[in-house]
Amino acid sequence: MKKILITGGAGYIGSHTAVELWNAGLEPIILDDFSNSHEHVLDRLAEITGKRFAFYRGDCNQRELLDQIAQEHQLAGVIHFAAFKAVGESTQQPLAYYKNNLGSLLVLLEFMQDKGIQNIVFSSSCTVYGQPDVLPVTEATPRKDAESPYGNTKKIGEDILVDYVKSKPGIRVVALRYFNPVGAHPSAKIGELPMGTPQNLVPFITQTAAGIRQKLTVFGNDYDTPDGSCVRDYIHVVDLADAHVKALRFLFEKTLDFYEVFNVGTGRGNTVLEVIHAFEKVNGLKLAYEIGPRRAGDVVKTWANTTKINQVLGWYPKFSLEDCMKDSWRWQLTLDTK
Ligand code: UD1
Q: Model confidence over 23-67: pLDDT tens digits?
């Protein structure tokens, strides 16, 4: 069984990807510092898969730890999730973001080169497109100046990988540009665990429905969209996890010094109000919400053209927006009873 190092493997997307890798016959080796995740996720992964994955605690800037992992496991590839991802925080602590998100990428690439590990999947984001001039967004859509240090780390991360591959180091790279990951594992054993007050829409919705937050504020209803609220492409985290499996399989078949980028979204845009109504309908609940002012820096509308990932990786999403809302709520309910 091929072993894949998952940095940030106890996190939201990393943990779901660990499950999908295992289901696909690949063995996850998890590295996480729990800076935005919890130890109990490892137990949950064992409950879901019946397998306790090898785990290392630390961050990817620790080269000795990476060396130890390579000594104990023959790695066929790396999926690099580990990164800070709070837009607002990144404007307050830019150096921490550049150090953690880009420093770790450099250490990881040097490590891979030294150990002859040839495959990497990099977590990028639709944030690199900013507000696109033409929708839906294809991979050829020009990237825009980043709105935040966080966004810039994703853009620069891609640039580093492109330049690195050009130098012919003997590596293959897929960068996946995620749209808006939501939902949770249908078992409700793993999901998103936001620290403090959630900044993202869906955790805020579920915490409001659970009574943890008084009400949700819809950030603006006077945009040029069907109902005036912003449009995003919401993708179920299990579908997103599956895209990583497909990306790895694709890499295994490629010649060396290869770089490719894919959008990972559903190809469908939904407004904030549509998301709220889907949540209410599928769960039979009324959500307390009000219309508030626009959020500074918000993109008005973005959604993916998914032709490339459909055709090249053979990847298609299986979950609907309603599935996302159902699974997010089931996950929130397990948190309430803890
Ligand atoms: C945000 C970041 C994006 C980053 C992603 C990581 C910005 C501008 N973008 O994406 O770069 O990759 O998080 O998770 O911060 N909304 C409300 N009320 C709320 C929360 C959100 O109406 O309480 C709306 C927002 O205005 C937006 C939509 O819900 O239209 C989704 O927001 P969010 O979940 O924060 O994601 P993005 O802004 O798309």
A: 999 999 999 999 999 999 999 999 999 999 999 999 999 999 999
Could you list the residue range(s) of the whole structural domain that residue 126 is in? 3-182+235-264
How far does residue 200's CA lie from ligand 1's centre (Å)?
Answer: 5
Q: Tell whether ligand 1 has an atom less than 6 A from the beta carbon of residue 300.
A: no
301 vs 79: CA distance, rounded Å: 29
The CA distances from residue 117 to 11, 18, 182, 272, in Å, are: 23, 19, 31, 42
- Confidence (pLDDT) at 336: 63
What is the reported pTM? Answer: 0.97
What is the count of structural domains for the chain? 1
Ligand 1 pocket member 218 (CB < 6 A): yes
Q: How far is the CA of 182 from the centre of ligand 1 (A)?
A: 11
Residue 71 lies in a domain: yes
- Domain assignment of residue 121, yes or no: yes
pLDDT higher than threshold 90 for residue 195:
no
Would 107 be classed as within a structural domain?
yes
- Distance from Cα 180 to the centre of ligand 1, integer Å: 8
Closest residue by Cα to atom 22, ligand 1, is: 218
Of 92, 101, 199, 240, the residue with max ligand 1 atoms within 8 A of its CB, to mutate for a pocket test, comes to 199
pLDDT, averaged across the chain:
97
Number of H helices, E strands in the chain: 12, 13
Domain at 85, CATH number: 3.40.50.720
Burial 284-295 (b: 16+ CB within 10 A, else e): eeeeebeeeeee
